[in-house]
């Protein structure tokens, strides 16, 4: 049982609340429906209902990659549900919804699925980090560097989203994992909250507020309403790993993440462990180990180096063999000559010719020296050719 809460509010200007939320540990999600005449409500609820049926599959997936794939499937299923509903019922046409979902797996591993401009934040004492990208016109302009954050906040198209569930049979889903540290909070919210409340205020209220999480969410929603409440406001928060988790457990979590290749996430998101002295007030028998900084692997750990080396060795061997291999053959003019290289396809070049007609050789000589195309050294092949010439003269 992890601390968590969810709150959804119609806001000050709208008649309906078209947002929906899912607060079902270990799955947490928000959906912001659009479509007017209450169709947005249908879209957001339908998306979350569909998503919820996939929770078990994500939680019990064999590993992180399988869990991410299961999350992507869940969001695609939600899209199909919203899309199919409107092709069956004309009254629902034009509905769509955002979806931002998090599933917490053991060890603080969080699987995220995301489409649209709702957001997932990771809040810690170190600050707020937006884990999702806004699929909106303004979000894309920001990411491409064409506008700055100040312009974005005032942009007239800041509510226009570029990806949503419902309009198409298919949708591109952001699905990924992240790791949270002890005491970190996940916060999923609709744009009705992020529009009016600054990142620093989220941290101040939820991480540093010192009150139960439902009280913190009520405070944030009230703040958004005080500042206009121009849209529906929804916030869902959960704390996957308690803040008093021991240093040892934390290191286990870290090693698991490093093994899973999540080193980057770990270093950016796990704050320093409180020392054992601080935590217990007594001298510890053993100091918790400092987690190792993720480092780039040494050069010999790169697989491609070994493949390249093996390739070079093989190529060298082939070239050496080629330059030192000679064989006798019957040329097109019926004369016996020496070629250098391999007696296959065109992997040889003429080296020496002779006036010996192959037809004049005894069938035994012809068979064993010319037709066999046996590989010889250079001196050996020349000696053999001279010997055949002598035999013929005799
Ligand atoms: Mn909204």
Short note summarizing the structure:
The chain is an alpha+beta fold and 394 residues long.
Oligomer: single chain
- Distance between the amino and carboxyl termini: 103 Å
The proportion of residues forming helix, as a percent range, comes to 25-40%
Question: What structural category arises from helix and sheet content?
Answer: alpha+beta
The percent range for strand residues is: 15-25%
Number of strands: 14
Q: What is the string of helix and strand elements?
A: EEEHHHEEEEEHHEEHHHEHHHHEEEHH
Ligand roster = manganese (II) ion
Query: What is the typical, i.e. mean, pLDDT?
Result: 87
Tell me the major beta sheet.
6 strands, antiparallel
Describe this structure in words.
There is one protein chain. This protein has helices at 39-52, 55-59, 64-88, 137-143, 149-154, 191-194, 199-207, 213-226, 247-259, 263-269, 276-280, 303-323, 363-371, 378-393, and strands spanning 4-9, 19-24, 27-34, 96-97, 99-105, 109-115, 119-124, 127-130, 174-179, 185-189, 233-238, 326-330, 336-341, 348-352. The chain is of the alpha+beta class. Strands 2, 3, 4, 5, 6 and 9 form a six-stranded antiparallel sheet that branches. It has a five-stranded antiparallel sheet with strand order 1-11-10-7-8. The chain has a three-stranded antiparallel sheet with strand order 12-13-14. Strand 7 (119-124) and strand 8 form a beta hairpin. Helix 7 (199-207) packs antiparallel against helix 8. It is elongated. Residues 261-290 have low confidence and may be disordered. Bound molecules: manganese (II) ion. Manganese (II) ion binds at residues 32, 190-192, 231-232.
């Amino acid at each position: 049982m992890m601390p968590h809460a969810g709150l959804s509010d119609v806001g000050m200007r709208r008649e309906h609340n078209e947002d929906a939320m899912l607060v079902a540990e270990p799955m947490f999600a928000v959906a912001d429906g659009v479509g007017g005449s209450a169709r947005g409500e249908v879209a957001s609820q339908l998306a979350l209902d569909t998503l919820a049926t996939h929770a078990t599959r994500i939680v019990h997936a064999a590993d992180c990659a399988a869990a991410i794939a299961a999350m992507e499937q869940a969001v695609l299923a939600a899209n199909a549900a919203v899309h199919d509903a409107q092709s069956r019922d004309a009254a629902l046409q034009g509905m769509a919804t955002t979806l931002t979902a998090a599933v917490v797996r053991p060890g603080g591993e969080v699987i995220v699925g995301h489409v649209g401009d709702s957001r997932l934040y990771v809040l810690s004492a170190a600050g707020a980090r937006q884990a999702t990208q806004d699929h909106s016109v303004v979000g894309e302009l920001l990411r491409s560097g064409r506008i700055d954050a100040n312009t974005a906040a005032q942009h007239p198209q800041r509510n226009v989203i570029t990806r949503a569930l419902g309009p198409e049979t298919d949708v591109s889903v952001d699905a990924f994992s992240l790791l949270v540290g002890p005491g970190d909070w996940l916060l999923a919210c609709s744009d009705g909250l992020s529009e009016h409340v600054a990142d620093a205020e989220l941290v101040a209220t939820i991480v540093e507020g010192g009150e139960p999480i439902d009280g913190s969410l009520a405070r944030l929603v009230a703040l958004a309403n005080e500042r206009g409440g121009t849209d529906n406001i929804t916030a869902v928060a959960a704390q996957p790993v308690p803040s008093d988790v021991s240093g040892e457990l934390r290191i286990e979590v870290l090693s698991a993440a490093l093994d899973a290749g999540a080193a980057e996430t770990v270093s950016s998101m796990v704050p320093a462990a409180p020392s054992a002295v601080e935590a217990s007030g007594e001298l510890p028998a053993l100091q918790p180990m400092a987690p190792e900084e993720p480092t780039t692997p040494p050069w010999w750990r790169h697989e491609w180096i070994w493949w390249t080396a093996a390739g070079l060795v093989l190529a060298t061997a082939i070239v050496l063999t080629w330059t030192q291999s000679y064989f006798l053959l019957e040329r097109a003019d019926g004369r016996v000559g020496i070629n250098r290289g391999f007696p296959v396809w065109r992997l040889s070049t003429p080296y020496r010719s002779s006036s010996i007609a192959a037809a004049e050789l005894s069938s035994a000589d012809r068979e064993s020296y010319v037709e066999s195309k046996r590989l010889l050294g250079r001196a050996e092949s020349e000696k053999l050719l001279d010997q055949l010439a002598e035999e013929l003269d005799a």
